[in-house]
Amino acid sequence: MAAVNRHHAAKGTPRSRVCQPHTNAIPLSISNAAAAQSRYHGTLKASMYFFVTSTLASLPTLETMKSTAMRIRAVSETDGIKKTLNAYRNNLVASNVAGCVDLYAPDGVTMAPGFETQVGHDAVKKWYTMCFETITLDVAFDIKEAVAVSEEYGFARTTSAGAQKINKTGETSREANQELFVMKKVEGEWKIARYCFSSTNPPK
């Protein structure tokens, strides 16, 4: 640079007209590349923002997840109640006293028409023993409702229809009843807490 200045000075060229390098100047190609990169990052950020917001919008809310979990649990509890009712029907037609009593809660209650209320396993066992000594049932259950109203309690409404045989005479007759069960969960299993029924046969 000093040599250039001396050369112009030797020819009498004013120093003010000597071209000085622009140290802050950016080549055009570099400037365009920087602008393109800036636009790319801007587009990328916008795309990522759209992706994240749309993904979050499609995710279920906490309330929705809670509601779904409650519905799944309700279905599971309902299935548990139905399982107990089906087991009761099977033990009933098999005249299985122990099997029926085992499906009751320890303080379970049976309310049969024409009989006093039976409370607790001992009383319930005596009633089923007397019942199966007298008659044999061949009925099918139709579960109309089975609902768990809490983690501990539920209810069910059923109907039953089939035949009843008098063991002493062998005489058979049409059997038809409507039943109401109050269910209670005992040690993780649904048990019969209260049971009452009445005949739906036409009056004689």
UniProtKB/TrEMBL annotation:
<feature type="domain" description="SnoaL-like">
    <location>
        <begin position="88"/>
        <end position="174"/>
    </location>
</feature>
<dbReference type="InterPro" id="IPR032710">
    <property type="entry name" value="NTF2-like_dom_sf"/>
</dbReference>
<dbReference type="InterPro" id="IPR037401">
    <property type="entry name" value="SnoaL-like"/>
</dbReference>
<protein>
    <recommendedName>
        <fullName>SnoaL-like domain-containing protein</fullName>
    </recommendedName>
</protein>
<dbReference type="Pfam" id="PF12680">
    <property type="entry name" value="SnoaL_2"/>
</dbReference>
